[in-house]
User: What shape does this take?
Amino acid sequence: MPDQRISIVLPCFNEGSGIIKLLQHLEEVLNKHTAHFFDVIIVDDCSIDNTLALLQSAQLNSKNMKLHILELLYNTGHQNCIYQGLLYTESLQSDFVVIMDSDGEDNPEAIPAMLEKADYDIVEVKRGKRSESFLFKVLNICYRLVFYIITGKKLHYGNFCMLSKNIVERLRLTSFIHLPAYLLKLKVKRTFVTFNRSKRIDGKSKMGYKNLLLHAFKSFVEFGDDLLLWFLRLFGIIILLLTGVGTNLLYQKFISHTAIPGWFSTIAMGLINICVLCIGFFVLGTLLINLMHNQNKSNQRIFRIVKGTE
Assistant: This one.
């Protein structure tokens, strides 16, 4: 009888034969770990190729593994795929949940290393070498730098992680739009293992420049409070700057009579415009935070079970 039950959630969209190769790799790595039982949960986000047909005929032969296939009722995106998978794990009574991408870039061999750190609430897989283009790497570094400046936290990992049952229950109750950023906010016991990213098994990566920008924006939404505070501080600095510059210009204009004509109005209008922009960001940020705090938390399940536990 296995000591622990581990769920592995894999969001999937148009992976084709690559997902079958990943399942084979998972089985090669995990069939030796008989002290654990692994529920492999593939959440198909309404793939429009032959992915679902291939999955329906797929089998896991290891006695300590079971394949579950969920098909979403409509396309919702990568992060909600993960959330639906977490909702499904509630019926499995898992001790831990591993989340990884289904394109093969997340190395299954990191899972045994994570299981060795089961005393922690969150075990992150810190990425080593990446296989993306030079431009993509530069943009990714810039994004992480801006993220650190605004939030004061380093986001050095993606979705690949292992979560305790307490963290998973918290995720089910509150939901998220960017899992890594959400986990980064939690004040819990965490550690990491480091693994290089593998090359994509098949097909073309879906994380292009447009998706990277959208992905980055979602991470800032998770830290909406910090983003709002950052703009508030910027607004305060500009007010102080406007006060100082205004005082100096008034002195030059009416006391020392050394002011250059037109300077006062030009600089004042520029600073006022910046203040108005900051106020606008502040108001939009406030509305965004209010929307986040009042979002629907109904734990709505939008999948049908293709294979697995009814």
Notes: The first helix runs from residue 17 to 30. The radius of gyration is 25 Å. The chain has a mean pLDDT of 84. DSSP finds ten helices and eight strands in the chain.
